[in-house]
Design goal:
49% helix; 2 domains; two-stranded parallel ribbon; 9 strands
Length: 300
Amino acid sequence: MQQRRAIALLITVMFVMIISVAIGYGLQQLNNASRIVKQEQNLYQNSMIVEDVLEILKQSKELSNLIDNNATEDLYSFLSTAAYIPLDIGENKVIISIQSARNKFNINNLNKKNKPLLQAYFNKMMVSDSYIELLSELTRKVETQEEYNNYKSILFDKYPALFREYIASKKHLEIINRFYRDEYKDESINNVAFDKLFSFSKDTNRSIDLNYARSEVWELILDTSKQRAQRVYQGSGSYKSIKDLHLSQREKESLSHFKTSFFEPYLRVDIQIIDQEERSRIHFEYDIRAKRGYDFVFEI
């Protein structure tokens, strides 16, 4: 009799455990479903906000006038006032910031002419030439299958799924930097302000807009000191020709190895959306002439 009771008790305990696991699993699935629904709602809401921002840009008479007049100083004034725009939309806080999309050096424009200047800049940061050799290898144009698999570094042995057509994003570069730091035991790579120096695009025809180039970019493209780069940077928004820069002959020679311009009507738009539980970020580029956005990235 006692044995039967023990078996019955064991069966009851197992039954309760099974029910508990089933309920726990059901609640987990419900939470996952609720999270997915919440994410989908956020994605829809974020898409609507992006559409509204795009429509405002398209309808802006101020932006249209900039193109009609190639107004360098007016564009600089517009971007100065649009650097930080806080909004309240329902229960959400929205922060919009707009800057030039051509204020950095596109790392995929690395070539034989400007490579020594990048080496000189990174040497000042105590980073060896091996890093620029690595970047040069990863930004070369691959035309055959043999070239696709023929790399001097073992980067793709460690990261076989890593994209290898060009350096596509900040996260892509972070993987490359991590590999360099581990492979060469060089922590000096942490000294470089990559966020202020490089942009990422497969379009190698892009120019640096010299009216918005960061001081770090000036230091690179003029092969000069931080102090000199800062002085040139202080003239942002007022440059219309090389003559306005008051460069030495050596600085002009360095500058000639980069694609530059004094008026590039392309904007980078960043949108942060903050509610009680989630923080989302969207960024894209906007072509003022064509009145269209592209390269949309949603971080949810």
